[in-house]
């Protein structure tokens, strides 16, 4: 893929792949319907990606999400069906980059498959993977993740996030905050109360990183949401608003868990709200 948006060179890179329960991914949608789009294995699991965005300009090297990282135990790696090694680090190395080159990391939310790579092991310690980066997290997301309230904090892993605060590299952001020229966070809520999408703007065609508001192209359908979503009506509202914005402006959508279609446009449709548009960057 060769995609440039304003001053930014954009690459979709792998933060890993994993196996996930299909019923969790597709929520209320019956298996007899969703398995036509993505067949499950004998354990009812479907094969998913963890796409991250690498955005480079003359002054910045930025990541959106970080995949699973290197901290999971062998048992957890087997349970999640993770591929060997640390794909995000390899993807950076293949482009001549090391973790020290990254200047900013935007996290859509703090679930392990999106922020596990934000920290890594250094001997017995867990430290930020990117020592020269500022990590941007939605303020509500951070408050929920560190609240100790099991109703909202049960999906977070302490060692994925606490080292960010201890190192002084954490920056809490809110709706419409600009991280760098042309890059803005959009507080969506829905999947988690502090979930945020990321917009890379341009005078012509931009890009929207949806996070888990729409993890795969199958989730272009209004009612298809994950069973993890804390606020289903808000997920559907945010999804419709972001799709409308992308369709009306010709923006790209990143489908962060879709192995076959990591990026595409979306178009309005008279009968089905939205359909997948061009996949050719």
From TrEMBL:
It comes from the Bacteria. The keyword Zinc applies. The keyword Nucleus does not apply. Keywords: Hydrolase, Metal-binding, Zinc. SMART domains: Lactamase_B (SM00849). Residues 49-257 form the Metallo-beta-lactamase domain. Transmembrane segments: none annotated. InterPro entries: MBL_superfamily_lactonases (IPR051013), Metallo-B-lactamas (IPR001279), RibonucZ/Hydroxyglut_hydro (IPR036866). Pfam families: Lactamase_B (PF00753). GO terms for molecular function: hydrolase activity; metal ion binding. Belongs to the metallo-beta-lactamase superfamily. This is Metallo-beta-lactamase domain-containing protein. It comes from Blastopirellula marina.
């Amino acid at each position: 893929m060769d995609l440039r948006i304003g001053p930014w060179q954009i690459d979709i890179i792998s933060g890993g792949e994993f196996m996930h329960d299909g019923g969790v991914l597709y929520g209320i949608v019956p298996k007899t319907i969703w398995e036509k789009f993505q067949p499950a294995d004998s354990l009812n699991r479907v094969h998913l990606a963890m796409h991250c965005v690498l955005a480079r300009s003359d002054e910045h090297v930025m990541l959106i999400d970080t995949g699973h990282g290197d901290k999971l135990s062998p048992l957890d790696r087997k349970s999640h069906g993770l591929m060997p090694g640390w794909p995000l680090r390899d993807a950076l190395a293949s482009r001549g980059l090391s973790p020290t080159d990254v200047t900013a990391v935007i996290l859509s939310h703090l679930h392990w498959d999106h922020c596990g790579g934000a920290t890594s092991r250094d001997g017995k310690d867990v430290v930020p993977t990117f020592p020269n980066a500022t990590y941007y997290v939605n303020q509500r997301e951070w408050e929920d993740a560190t609240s100790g309230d099991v109703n909202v904090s049960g999906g977070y892993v302490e060692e994925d996030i606490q080292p960010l605060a201890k190192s002084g590299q954490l920056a809490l952001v809110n709706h419409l905050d600009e991280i760098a020229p042309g890059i803005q966070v959009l507080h969506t809520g829905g999947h988690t109360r502090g979930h945020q999408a990321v917009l890379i703007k341009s005078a012509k065609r931009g890009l929207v990183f949806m996070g888990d508001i729409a993890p795969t192209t199958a989730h272009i359908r209004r009612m298809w949401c994950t069973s993890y979503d804390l606020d289903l009506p808000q997920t559907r509202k945010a999804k419709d608003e972001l799709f409308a914005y992308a369709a009306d402006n010709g923006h790209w959508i990143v489908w962060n868990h879709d192995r076959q279609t990591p990026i595409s446009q979306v178009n309005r449709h008279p009968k089905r709200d939205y359909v997948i548009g061009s996949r050719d960057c």
